[in-house]
C-alpha cells in the first residue's frame, strides 16, 4: 500500500469538521459543555506555563463558543491566582451558545476573584497594563470580516503590549482558508483545540506559536460517522432553489424476476430529499411503481430485462440526472451485462454513479470500467467476488478496512462502502466506519435502500466519500428506528419510512441509531 490511509477526518480539520465532531462527540456521551470546559482549562494551563501567578490578565469574550472557552479559562485562571478581568463584548442575554451561557453564569457569581465588565463602547477599550490578553472573541464561527464591536476590540488587542493568546483561532482569521478579510488579531500564541485547522497552518505570521490542545474528544467522534455528519454536511433546500436543483436521481434496475428492488431504491432516494427520481426499468417494474406517482417512470420496452437497445434512451435521461444508481435486480443475463457495459462506457466521468448488487458482479472482469466519482456498495460476498479477496471478519475491523482501502487505492476517486455489521467506508486515503443499524436489517431490500440514499446525496452535491458515509449512517439509523417499532417483522419499506425521522432529527435519533450494534471488536491503536 502506497500510503497508510487515515482513520477519521484527517490531520487538519475544517470549521465544518469541527461542528461535525462536536455533535458526534455529544452523541457518544461527551457533551459540548465538557469540551468547552477542557478547552478553557487548556488555555489556562498554557498561560500558566508562560507567566507567573499574580500577573494581570484581560479576557475578551465574544458571543459564541469561542467566548465560552474564554469564560471557562477565566475561572481556571482565577483559581490559579491570576488577576483576571473579563470583558464581555456582547450583552449577556445575546450570548449565542448555550454552553457559553452556562460558563457566563458561573463568572457572574465569581465577584470576589474576577472583575466582569460588559463593554458597551468598544472604542474606549484600553488594554494597557495587562500582562496577558486572551482573545476569545471569534473562532471557527467567523463569517466574513469582523464587524463592530469585534473589529474595534481586535484593534485594541493589537495595540496592547501584553502576551496575546488566541483561543482556537486568532479573531478575524478564517480558519479554513487562512484569509483575513478585515481586522485580525496578531497573536503570540494560538491554542487550538483537538486538531489544527488548515488556515492556521498557512498563517504562522498571524498565529504565532501554535499549540494543539486535546479537549477530550473521543477519536470515535471522527472514526464513526455520526449525527453531526448528517446535520452539517447535507445541503438543505432554501427558497432560492428551483425545482430540480436539490438533485435528480436516475435508478436503473429490475427485471421480470426482481421487481421491488429498484422501487425501494427510488423511494429511499426520494425520502433523502432530492427533487426528482427517474426509474428506468422493464414493464413489470414500471407497473408496480405506478403505486408511487411521485416517481418518474422510464419504461424499457420490448424486453423483460435491460437490453442493449435501451441504452440510447437511458443515456438521454442520464443527461438530466445529477447521479445514477445501477444494479439492483438487473439479473446477470448476457444482454443485461452488455447493456450495463455500454452504459458505463458512455456515461461521462463527472457524473457520480453508485454501483450496487448485480452490477458489482459484472465488474469482476471489467475493472477498467471502475472510474472517477464511483461509489461501490458491496456486501462481503460481493466484495470477494469483485476483487477476489475476502475481507477479515468484523472483529478484526482494521484489517477488514485495510483490505477495502487497498482495493480503493487501485483507482482514483473511487469510494468503497463495504456493508456489514459495521460498515467500512474508504476511498483509499481515508477510512471511516458506520455502526448504525439493527440485526433485522438482513431482511431483503435494505441494501437497495442504501444505494438509493447514496445516489440521492451524490445528486445533492455531497462528495462521494461523504455521501457513502452519511448514507450508511442514515440507512442504519432508519433501520434501527424501524426495528424499534416493528422488531423482527420490519421490512425495507419500514426502513424507508423512517429516513425522514433521521434526516430531520439526527441528534435526537442517535441513541436509537446506535442501540443495537454493540459488537466485540479488536482495539485499534492509531
Ligand atoms: N470541537 C471543538 O473544536 C470545540 C470548539 N469550541 C469553540 O467554539 C468555537 C466555535 O463556536 P461558534 O460556532 O459559536 O463560533 P464563534 O465562537 O467563532 O462565534 C460565532 C458568532 O460570532 C458571530 N459572528 C460571526 N461572524 C461575525 C462577524 N464577521 N462579525 C461579527 N460577529 C460575527 C455570530 O454571531 C456567531 O454567533 C471554536 O472556535 C472554539 O473556540 C470549544 O468550545 C470546544 C469544542
Ligand atoms: K479567538
TrEMBL record:
Cofactor(s) of this protein: Mg(2+); K(+)
Keyword Nucleotide-binding annotated: yes
GO terms of molecular function: ADP-dependent NAD(P)H-hydrate dehydratase activity; ATP binding; metal ion binding; NAD(P)HX epimerase activity
Domain YjeF C-terminal span(s) in chain numbering: 226-506
Domain YjeF N-terminal, chain residue ranges per copy: 18-223
Binding site for K(+): 66, 135, 171
UniProtKB keywords: ATP-binding, Isomerase, Lyase, Metal-binding, Multifunctional enzyme, NAD, NADP, Nucleotide-binding, Potassium
Catalysed reactions listed for this entry: (6S)-NADPHX + ADP = AMP + phosphate + NADPH + H(+); (6S)-NADHX + ADP = AMP + phosphate + NADH + H(+); (6R)-NADHX = (6S)-NADHX; (6R)-NADPHX = (6S)-NADPHX
Top-level taxon of origin: Archaea
GO biological process per UniProt: metabolite repair; nicotinamide nucleotide metabolic process
Free-text remark on how the cofactor is bound: Binds 1 potassium ion per subunit.
Chain sites annotated for binding (6S)-NADPHX: 65-69, 139-145, 150, 168, 261, 329, 379, 448
PANTHER family named in the record: ATP-DEPENDENT (S)-NAD(P)H-HYDRATE DEHYDRATASE, ATP-DEPENDENT (S)-NAD(P)H-HYDRATE DEHYDRATASE FAMILY MEMBER
Purpose: Catalyzes the epimerization of the S- and R-forms of NAD(P)HX, a damaged form of NAD(P)H that is a result of enzymatic or heat-dependent hydration. This is a prerequisite for the S-specific NAD(P)H-hydrate dehydratase to allow the repair of both epimers of NAD(P)HX.
Family note: In the C-terminal section; belongs to the NnrD/CARKD family. Belongs to the NnrE/AIBP family.
Protein name as it appears in the record: Bifunctional NAD(P)H-hydrate repair enzyme
Organism: Pyrodictium delaneyi
Amino acid at each position: 500500500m502506497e500510503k497508510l490511509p487515515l482513520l477519521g477526518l484527517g490531520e487538519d480539520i475544517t470549521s465544518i469538521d469541527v461542528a461535525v465532531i462536536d455533535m458526534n462527540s455529544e452523541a457518544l456521551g461527551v457533551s459540548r459543555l465538557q469540551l468547552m470546559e477542557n478547552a478553557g482549562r487548556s488555555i489556562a494551563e498554557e498561560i500558566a506555563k508562560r507567566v507567573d501567578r499574580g500577573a494581570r490578565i484581560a479576557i475578551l469574550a465574544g458571543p459564541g463558543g469561542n467566548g465560552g472557552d474564554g469564560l471557562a479559562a477565566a475561572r481556571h485562571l482565577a483559581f490559579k491566582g491570576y488577576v483576571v478581568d473579563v470583558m464581555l463584548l456582547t450583552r449577556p442575554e445575546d450570548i449565542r451558545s448555550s454552553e457559553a451561557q452556562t460558563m457566563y453564569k458561573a463568572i457572574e457569581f465569581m465577584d470576589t476573584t474576577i472583575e466582569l465588565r460588559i463593554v458597551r463602547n468598544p472604542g474606549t477599550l484600553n488594554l494597557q497594563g495587562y500582562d496577558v490578553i486572551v482573545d476569545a472573541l471569534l473562532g471557527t464561527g467567523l463569517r466574513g470580516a469582523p464587524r463592530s464591536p469585534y473589529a474595534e476590540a481586535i484593534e485594541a488587542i493589537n495595540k496592547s503590549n501584553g502576551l496575546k493568546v488566541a483561543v482556537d483561532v486568532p479573531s478575524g482569521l478564517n480558519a479554513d482558508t487562512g484569509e483575513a478579510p478585515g481586522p485580525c488579531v496578531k497573536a503570540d500564541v494560538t491554542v487550538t483545540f483537538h486538531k489544527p485547522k488548515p488556515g492556521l497552518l498557512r498563517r504562522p505570521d498571524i498565529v504565532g506559536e501554535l499549540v494543539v490542545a486535546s479537549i477530550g474528544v473521543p477519536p470515535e467522534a471522527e472514526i464513526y460517522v455520526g449525527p453531526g455528519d448528517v446535520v452539517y454536511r447535507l445541503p438543505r433546500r432554501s427558497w432560492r432553489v428551483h425545482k430540480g436543483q436539490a438533485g435528480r436521481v436516475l435508478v436503473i434496475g429490475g427485471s421480470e424476476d426482481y421487481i421491488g428492488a429498484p422501487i425501494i431504491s427510488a423511494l429511499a432516494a426520494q425520502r433523502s430529499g432530492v427533487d426528482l427520481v427517474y426509474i428506468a426499468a422493464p414493464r413489470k417494474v414500471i407497473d408496480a411503481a405506478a403505486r408511487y406517482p411521485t416517481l418518474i417512470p422510464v419504461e424499457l420496452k420490448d424486453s423483460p430485462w435491460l437490453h442493449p437497445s435501451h441504452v440510447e434512451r437511458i443515456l438521454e435521461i442520464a443527461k438530466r440526472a445529477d447521479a445514477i444508481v445501477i444494479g439492483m435486480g438487473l439479473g446477470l443475463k448476457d444482454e443485461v451485462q452488455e447493456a450495463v457495459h455500454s452504459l458505463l462506457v458512455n456515461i461521462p466521468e463527472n457524473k457520480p454513479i453508485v454501483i450496487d448488487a448485480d452490477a458489482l458482479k459484472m465488474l469482476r472482469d471489467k475493472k477498467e470500467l471502475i472510474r472517477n466519482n464511483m461509489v461501490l456498495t458491496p456486501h462481503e460476498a460481493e466484495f470477494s467476488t469483485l476483487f477476489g479477496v475476502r475481507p477479515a471478519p468484523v472483529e478484526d475491523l482494521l484489517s477488514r478496512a485495510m483490505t477495502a482501502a487497498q482495493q480503493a487505492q487501485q483507482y482514483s476517486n473511487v469510494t468503497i462502502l463495504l456493508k456489514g455489521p459495521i460498515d467500512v467506508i474508504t476511498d483509499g486515503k481515508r477510512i471511516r466506519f458506520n455502526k448504525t443499524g439493527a440485526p433485522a436489517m438482513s431482511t431483503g431490500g435494505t441494501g437497495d435502500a442504501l444505494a438509493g440514499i447514496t445516489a440521492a446525496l451524490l445528486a445533492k452535491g455531497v462528495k462521494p466519500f461523504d455521501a457513502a458515509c452519511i448514507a450508511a449512517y442514515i440507512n442504519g439509523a432508519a433501520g434501527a428506528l424501524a426495528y424499534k417499532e416493528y422488531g423482527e417483522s420490519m421490512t425495507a419499506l419500514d426502513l424507508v419510512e423512517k429516513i425522514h425521522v433521521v434526516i430531520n432529527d439526527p441528534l435526537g435519533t442517535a441513541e436509537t441509531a446506535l442501540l443495537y450494534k454493540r459488537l466485540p471488536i479488536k482495539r485499534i491503536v492509531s
